[in-house]
Amino acid sequence: MSVHIAATVAGSSGRTRNGREPATPAATSAWASDAGSAAGDAVLMRTLVLRTFGDPLRLEQVRRPDPGPGEVLVRIGASGVNPLDTKIRTGSAAHARVALPAMLGMDLAGAVVQLGPGVRRFAVGDEVFGMTGGVGVVPGSLAEYAAVDADLLAVKPPSMSMVQAAALPLSVITAWEGLVDRAAVHAGQRVLVHGGAGGVGHVALQLARARGAEVFATGSGAGLEVIRSYGATAIDRTTTSAEQYVASATDGVGFDVVFDTVGGAVLDSSFAAVRTYTGHVVSVLGWGSHSLAPLSFRGATYSGVFSLLPLLTGQGRAHHGQILTEAAGLVESGALSPMVHPEQFGWDGVTSAHHVVETGAARGKVVLDLTRPPGSTGLRTAAATRTER
Question: Is 0.90 surpassed by the pTM of this model?
Fold first, then answer.
């Protein structure tokens, strides 16, 4: 693949990964290798490239980037697949501001192999995780290496594998921004999570419980048992109306916080489910047209969450790293455990992985294991995994 293409994928629109001067591509290429080529060597790395919206991702080679000021070079061990990744691929996510050709993949876990100028928080060899790119002009994690703004990263929980760690970043950042930054959830509150068995939802209910709240969550089918397994009270959305669960869970008073991961009519019902005066609704999908009258008549409040902003604007990135550091502590204490889809895909499985997410067949977070080279054995299948304590 040509140097011109590599530069375009890395963000040739004049805006760089972290708002600093463009980095100069450099050296090395396999998971098992170290960073050690001489500066200026044009060693290639594998990456999956989107060239046309709606087409499959293509396995190509580009020059490995060199970390710029404030960046670290990460050898990527695993890349999480989010619903937004599939929407970007099909051209259905204008808000992600992706220009083609592009490297997708927002979540990663891997090892630091090189430090850019000015980096003090990490050392070579540190295992890290983060939501680091795949939107705007920031290259994503479907590659052997990524030059990442160090502010976006945290040290990976030691007890977690790369695959488990790559399942967390977007989900826990989104949940934290909603429940902690916006709603300030605390002990003694009743919290309702809509979509409690989903990728963000199952993390959100654990986070709310970790902060001392009594947690209820809506779901259906097998998702109800997932909700219960994480210690929340499950509400079957197919058989229970908002009026009924507000009455049974809160004696008709309403929830202190409603965290919505579904949007649409579910967000509308959330406005009528919160406590008067002090109730707070938070949504990660508040993108439609909604009447605020039910919320206004309660004197309650609303916040939206758009966790891509630091990647798109370059502002607030250090906070994402701080969130992940806090999340790592919750993992190690046993208070936070992501559920990982039982099929683990490698480089050759990206199309299948996207299909699982798009069709709603995922039982937990879908993750690509990038330590397995193209052409290696196919799917590894096991029971859905979570980090137990």
Answer: no
